[in-house]
Structures are given as structure tokens and as C-alpha cells.
Design goal:
This protein has 121 residues and is mainly alpha-helical. Helix content is 52%, strand content 0%.
Length: 121
């Protein structure tokens, strides 16, 4: 019994790591195939970020998930065999895997009479 109890906590710990570190707290679907795709896309997300030497917040998990279809088509045609290299390739940047840099948010002036920030001509 003690051995089984110890194994239970190892499983709980594994779920905790997957949920917290990989960001899989919420599943997008309830189907087994959908869950497998989401877990696979999450691992791929981290591998692509590492391949491109970019921080994780610059990679779009949603676009990697959506791009799996495009990779499977390229794989079937013999044009790709490594999903990490496929998503990291310059010719596939139109898939939107790397998020565009945005302008920094300007500070919001909450004073009662803010000074005009721009002059319109």
C-alpha cells in the first residue's frame, strides 16, 4: 500500500509540472485526439522558441497549433520532415508563429487636467 501511495504522489507531481510549467492548466477540447494535439503543440512551442533563440512570449502557441495542419500537408508531400525546423524556417514565417513586436504602451496620465500629448493639424 505504501508503494502505491508513493506512486500516486509521483503522478500528482507530474500533473502539477505539466499544468504549471507548460501552461496546460486548461484544455481546449475534451477529445483524446485534441488533448494529444495540444500537449504535442505545447512541447513543439518550447522547442521552436529554443531553436529560434527567442523568449517564450514571442512564440504563439495558437499559431503553432494551427500550423500543424500546414506541417502535415508539407510532410505528406515530402517537403518537410522536422516540425521544429519547419516552423523555424524563414520561408514559413507567414504562419505567424513568431509574434510581431508591438509598440510599448504609453503611460496613462490620470491627472484631473492632463496636458495634450499630440497636436492635430
Amino acid at each position: 500500500m505504501a508503494d502505491l501511495y508513493c506512486r500516486r504522489w509521483r503522478i500528482e507531481e507530474a500533473f502539477y509540472i505539466v499544468k504549471r510549467l507548460l501552461g496546460l492548466s486548461y484544455l481546449w477540447t475534451g477529445s483524446i485526439n485534441g488533448v494529444k494535439l495540444q500537449v504535442w503543440a505545447t512541447w513543439l512551442f518550447y522547442a521552436v522558441a529554443d531553436e529560434l533563440s527567442l523568449p517564450f512570449d514571442r512564440i504563439s502557441l495558437e499559431m503553432i497549433f494551427r500550423g500543424l495542419y500546414h506541417f502535415s500537408v508539407a510532410y505528406d508531400k515530402g517537403k518537410a520532415d522536422d516540425p521544429i525546423k519547419y516552423f523555424a524556417a524563414k520561408e514559413n514565417q507567414d504562419l505567424g508563429v513568431v509574434k510581431a513586436l508591438r509598440k510599448p504602451v504609453s503611460r496613462l496620465d490620470l491627472s484631473p487636467f492632463p496636458a495634450p500629448s499630440q497636436t492635430f493639424v
